[in-house]
Structure formats: C-alpha cells, structure tokens
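Hi W.,

Here's what went into the run:
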Amino acid sequence: MLYYCVGEMVVHMPKSDYISISVIKRLPRYYRYLGELSKSGVYRISSRELAGIMKLTASQIRQDLNCFGGFGQQGYGYNVNDLYNEIGRILGIDTELKTIMVGAGNLGQTIALHMDFENKGFDLIGIFDRAEKANGRSIRGVHVQDINTLDSFCKEQKPVIAILCIPNDAARELAPKLIELGIKGFWNFSHYDLGVDYENVAIENIHLGDSLMTLSYRTNDIIKSAK
Amino acid sequence: MLYYCVGEMVVHMPKSDYISISVIKRLPRYYRYLGELSKSGVYRISSRELAGIMKLTASQIRQDLNCFGGFGQQGYGYNVNDLYNEIGRILGIDTELKTIMVGAGNLGQTIALHMDFENKGFDLIGIFDRAEKANGRSIRGVHVQDINTLDSFCKEQKPVIAILCIPNDAARELAPKLIELGIKGFWNFSHYDLGVDYENVAIENIHLGDSLMTLSYRTNDIIKSAK
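Here's what came out:
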C-alpha cells in the first residue's frame, strides 16, 4: 500500500483484477501532471484540485486511482510525490523492457533520438535496417545492424518490444516473425493496423496520417460553423 | 449524394447534424482501407466483407457511414472508389488548409519531411524557429524563419493550422497567441495538453510519451499473465 494512515479515515478500496483500457490510457497523463506538480514543489493535492487542473471530475479521479488500490484519504488528499512514484511503478517505468527498433530512416532516427526510453521503462538494445542503410551507423550509441541479423540477435538477446518505423507492407510481413521471436509489444509507426491480426500482444499504433486527417475534418468543421 | 440507384432498394439515411468524435476518428481508417482496396482493383464490397477486413461489425460500418448520408445499397454493397473519394471529401483532403510549423528541431524536421501534407488537406506555408536555429535553412522547400516574424507572417498569410514541435512550456506560452492570430487547429507534439484550456479549436495531441508508457504497462501485463 502506498499510503499511511495519518487522518481519521483511510479510503482504501480493494485492487480490481480487471482494469479497463481507458483507465490505463489515462495513467500516463496522471503521471505527467503529478510529475509537474512535484517539480513545482506541491506536496499534497485533493482530488478536487487535481480534477480542476486536469479538467476531469474529482469522482473520476478517485474512481481511476481506486482501480489500483487505495491512494489518498478523506480530508487530506494525495501525497503528490508518493502518488507520482506509485503510478510510475504501475506503468512499469522501472522494468527496462528490452527493445529493438526496425527501420532507421528519418522517422526511426528521430524517434530513437527524441524519446526518453530509459525513464519510461525501455532499454533500446538493437536497431535494424537493410544492410545498405545500416552501413556502420550508430544512433544514440546503438549500432544499426543489418536486418538479416535480426533472427540471431533476438534468439540471443530476447527483446520483448519492437518499434516499427517501416512501411505498411514491411510491417505486415515482419510482424508474425517478430511475434514468433518473442516480441510481446509493438510501438507501431507504420500505417498497418497491427492490432487487427494478433491477440495477446500489446500494440500502440501511432497513425500520424489518421490524426492529420481527423484534424483536417475538425478544423474545416470549425471554420464552416464560424461562417 | 454519392450513390446512384441501380438496385431495388437504396439505403439512404438522412445526414446527421451531430457526428460523434469516435465516428470521425474512424473515418481515416475507412479511408486507408478503401484506398488499399481500390489500389488492388476491388470495385465493390459489401459491408460484411469490409467488416471482416477491418475487424468491425457490418452494422457498425453501416451505422458509421449513414452518419454522412446514404452510401451503398442492399444486395450491391459499396462502390469502393466512390466511397473512398467521398470519405476523402468529407475529411477535407482537398481543402489545402494553410499550415505553419513551429519548432524545426529533429522532430519538426522529420514530421515536415515525412508527412504527405498535400494529400491530406494541408498546405505547409511556413516553418518557424529561434533565429539561431532558423539560420537560413529550408525544409521541404520551405524556408525556416525567425520566430520573431511569426506575427507579421500570420497577419499577412492567415494560416489556420499550427503544428507544434516545441517543448511543453513553449507550447503553453505560444498557444493563446496563435489562437489570437487566427489558428483554428493544432497538431500538437508537445507534452502540453492543449485541449484542456481552449474551446472551439480543433486539437490533435500526439503524446508519444504517454503512448510509450501505455505500451510499457500493457506489455508488462502480458508478460506477467504468461508466467
């Protein structure tokens, strides 16, 4: 349990066995906000204050956090730093999941350079591309290897996460092989809807093109309704 | 109306005034799948067949598309190419929304190079960064300008979309100014939750860090439950 009883009444709900994906998807946001609050020196916060900042309702916050056991207590609120650390632990940011990246073009290179993998639970141990593109390069201190060495590398190093920065067709072709090689989670930047064909594999699709088209629709809608 | 009656019964529902965000968010995916089908020479498709490919139910597909007026007809299905073009039109891919990008570091540069803006309804007309980073560079044929020229540029060119590839604090500071300058839609790559503070502005947040942490949680969950 994260929280020690110092008040009169401890709100401590039993941890749920099943946690809905929408709650899980909100956790990183809690983590971000609590990290900022902690950095600004806020020591404790009520669910109402946190709700105000995050534009949620206090009861939603209490409900969300109760899924993971008891945090906070009536009349006291949450200890910001403890809650921040606890959500980090729930998200697994200390787990160092062995991670490979496939595709080291512009996008792959930028993702590799840009992301704070170490502080989010990932250990980037291998980057792969076609031989002519690998060509002795290193990104973030990781040697870019010929894709033909992928099999032997995975059998030896046992990575569990693959970041796909390759085109649609290549992703579709490679996915089953990667799953066979032990990959349990994909961070997929290709257009291919990886989730459609596999079960029991964690998938986060970043469909930038879809997001851009949604933005187009909604912006046009706002412009039209303003006329 | 997209569809001409050639069969016995035309399913033509009135266009809804209010379309839910979840339907809108599915449209780009329909667009992608129909584009691929059209490229592979598929001329028509039933809602059942499309549902099978997209892992949706046929009734959900019919319901989604009925929000936008009548497509398809019983016993015939959808004309793939017509539906593709019509969804593209609904998404506004022919609208050439004037777009600026703020932040031309690694991420900004890659986004500018990687995205197929022209075919998604956007016209990238300006890129801005601090003077020392702008430094005479061009990306995708667009000159990178000193951020100090942003005001005059927006007043003259009237862009409506801003792509933010800048840090949290810079995004928070710049957003109200951009809205004042006429920006109606944001493609936001910063950690800042832009949607929280503004209304009547279209916002697509790409929170890569949140996605990565969700992936960490879910992958750890799968690994644990396999043990």
